[in-house]
Amino acid sequence: MGIINKMVVSTLPLVPKGIVRKFANRYIAGETLAHAVATSKKLNAKGIMGTIDVLGEDVFKKEDATRSKNECLEVLDAIKEHSLNSNQSIKLTSLGLKIDKEFCLSNVKEIFAKAKEKNIFVRIDMEDSSVTNDTIWVFTEARKTYSNCGIVLQAYLRRTYDDAAKLIESGTNFRLCKGIYIEPEEIAFKERQEVRDNFLKILRLMLEKDSYVGIATHDEYLVEGAYKLIEELKKPKDRYEFQMLLGVREGMRDKIVKDGHRMRIYIPFGTHWYQYSIRRFKENPQMAGYVIKSILNGGK
Annotated catalytic residue: which of 175, 253, 264, 280? Predict the structure, then answer.
């Protein structure tokens, strides 16, 4: 059945968006900021933190990047207005990184400045390898002025251990994830266990150096490995947190919370829900199988 589901993923662009949306709803808060606020409130009521992200990436016009920046500023207003226990996540390609990195840096600094005024933390997401260097550069430059920020590193990239070691020196706050973009073997580990091993190797480094780290995974093996490292290194619970995507492995999420660990959920919203959802289906082909079953049942 797994092979069939993977085949279904490749045909998803042919599936009516209305049907895809039905199953995408578990992964996104909705199309509006109000939806993200409502989702954050529900999670906060369960003792779970959030990080809100306006969906969108790869803009090539400055006016589009400025629009994305303004949407990010609106998110900060909403977090403060509704007293949400939430951070903000941002993608630099939606803020002009592929247009001009200095222009992007200016947008990021404006976001960080407002976030600092409102005492809100902002995380810069990591995207595909074509922008890894520029993403780290923007983060490093912005952090010289604003400390209320962190960055994501991806364990499947061969370079990441070295990137982490350098960034740790300046007291960087990390989110560590496996990584989802398709990359060539010369720069990325391809075998599942290789990625897992590198994830735990990097996580050990971060925890040993007392970096704050968001342990972002839905892999039970990595959760158990993280538990062992936390116990071995006697890490206090305010020096790390677990992070997961909205709508993914909620049973595991609740168990981590029950075990007494901090949990933060990624809360995406916006009109660009389709592209994001297709990536989630590629990560979780079983969901694609549900989509095809719906089609065969007349969309029910």
Answer: 175
Q: Is 125 a catalytic residue?
A: yes
Question: Which DSSP state fits 94?
Answer: G
To the query of whether residue 175 is one of the catalytic residues in this protein, the response is yes
Average of per-residue pLDDT across 6-22: 68
| Under 8 Å between Cβ of 111 and 81 | no
SS3 68: helix
- Say how many C-beta atoms besides its own lie within 10 A of residue 191's C-beta: 10
Kind plus residue range of the DSSP H or E element containing 191 = none
Q: Measured in whole angstroms, how far is the alpha carbon of residue 18 from the centre of its chain? A: 25
Copy the structure tokens of residue 230. 């936390």
* Half-sphere CA count of 32, side-chain side, radius 13 A: 3
Please give the residue that has the higher pLDDT: either 58 or 141.
141
Q: Which of 125, 253, 262, 264 is catalytic?
A: 125
Which class for 274: exposed (0-12), middle (13-18), buried (19 or more C-beta within 10 A)?
Answer: middle
All domains of the chain in start order, with CATH: 29-269 (3.20.20.220)
Residue 300: predicted pLDDT:
46
Nearest to 142 by CA among 187, 196, 95: 95
Separation of alpha carbons 241 and 85, rounded Å? 14
CB-CB contact of 115 with 88 (8 Å)? yes
Give the integer Cα–Cα distance in Å for 99 and 288: 34
